[in-house]
Amino acid sequence: MLARVGIFAMVALLVAGLFGWPPADRDEPGPPAVTLLPGAGDGLVLGVTHAQYSLDSWLTPGQRTSGEQILGATPLLQNQHIMGFGVGNPEPAPGRFDWSRLDERMDLIERTGGTPVITLCCAPDWMKGGAAGTTDWDDLAAAPLPAHFDDFARLSAKVAQRYPQVKYFQVWNELKGFWDAQAGAWDAKGYTDLYNQVYDAVKAVRPDALIGGPYVVLNSWSSASATNHPSELRGPYGVVDQRSLDVVEYWNEHKHGADFVALDASTGTRDKGLITTPDKASQIYADATRWARSLTGLPVWWSEFYPETAPPPQESTGKAKSAPVPADQARAVATLDAVARAAEAGAAAMLLWQPEASDDLPYAALWSEARPGVDVLRPTSLTAAWTWLAPRLREGLVDVQRPADVVQFSTPGGKVVVNPRPETGLVRAGGLSVRVPPLTIRVPG
Predict the structure, then answer these.
(1) Three-state SS for 233?
(2) 228 burial class (0-12, 13-18, 19+ CB within 10 angstroms)?
(3) CB-side neighbour CA atoms (13 Å) of 432
(4) Contact at 8 Å (CB) between 382 and 407?
(5) Residue 433's pLDDT band (cuts 50, 70, 90)
(6) Which of 71, 129, 166, 358 has the greatest number of CB atoms lying within 10 Å of its CB?
């Protein structure tokens, strides 16, 4: 027991050193929340989406305290779905509501100073053809039946009324259940019909609500010949599937209104995975941001983004080879490079999927996985840079530069330097050329 307390104390002091407060519970209010919708000309707002694993009540006090310190270290958008993704069925039978788990997540967001975002997904079983009072979690991804679009819209309005502190709402998630297998395309009309009913219902009870869609995945292929549906949106990352773009175009033309456009993409292609280096593949976040802004005239939110990593490099130094770069560090580098691309193109928001690390999600996170017998959640390779950048990006204080082989997030108060390449890069500092090892992140202080 004494050894465990000692470990907790050491790690808590590390967290305190990183984030600038004592490890004890804070009595003072959390950091100020983002109050304005990010848009053209404003800074990029970073955030997270809580999923199945987060800082829930069944964790140990030490895990929750250390995790909340990491999450609350800087103002972030914090997104939560209304069903699944860590919460229960909000309306298991018509007119019978259960807000308990969603309330817990909203309380977590408030405690950690986050700006809440709600994704209006997914739908109770009885809206999908199931029996009232039952929940089949294997059927979570099914869309509500068209005859129940109005019921889902009413539920969405209830959510908006229950949580007046929430200003931002995303409608649905990745067009789940809207794939038309017979047509071999997304049912853009069906989704937009749902979106419009939700939009109207939420705006009727919350005129101040800011609502976005279509939250579509921009699938890509290794080449135009690899798909029957190539688009002109293409680059070193591959060729974006036209069917994904068709959804955005149809929604944009037929929507009743929108305050932002929501996108989702990986840097890997559908047929061959990553086809170039991670830093070149991340260009998709710049190209797609510019395309969506030009089409819609709306702020662009990256509701999900998944930058792939290449096998860790081993760089020769004389006769010996350097140690391989840890996977966690390579993932953090790829994430920051994606953020740089989106920021350069004027994206409004980026949400990191699931801020808790998990073996089944090979992407960057902000804290380590909560495991039995471990009383403290640890920062990851991404945490310090993400925390340092978030307030500065939001305030428009960051100038993204790509001198030679590195990425620099420069501000009057310092810079984050990222080498996203598998080779040593050079950066000028004080008139000198400084070597930056492969896949390295350097944070001021």
Answers:
(1) strand
(2) exposed
(3) 4
(4) no
(5) confident
(6) 71
Q: How far apart are CA 68 and CA 358, in angstroms?
A: 17
pLDDT of residue 14: 35
What pLDDT does residue 434 have? 81
pTM: 0.89
Helix (H, G, I), strand (E, B) or coil at 117: strand
Q: Which residue has the tokens 């997540």?
A: 105
Pinpoint the alpha helices (H) of 263-361: 278-281, 283-296, 327-345
> How far is the first Cα of the chain from the last one, in angstroms, to the nearest whole number?
34
Angstrom distance (rounded) from CA 110 to CA 31: 10
Calpha distance 77→35 (Å, rounded): 10
Structure-derived torsion over alpha carbons of residues 140, 180, 305, 89, reported in degrees to the nearest 10 = -20
Q: Would you give the DSSP letter of residue 195? A: H
User: Looking at the predicted structure, is the pLDDT value of residue 125 above 90?
Assistant: yes
Q: Angle of helix 242-254 relative to helix 283-296, nearest 10 degrees? A: 30
Domains of the chain are: 2-399 (3.20.20.80)
CA 207 to chain centre: 26
Name the helix (H) or strand (E) containing 3.
helix 2-19
What pLDDT, in 10s, does the model give residues 322-352?
A: 567 899 999 999 999 999 999 999 999 999 9
Tell me what pLDDT residue 39 has.
Answer: 44
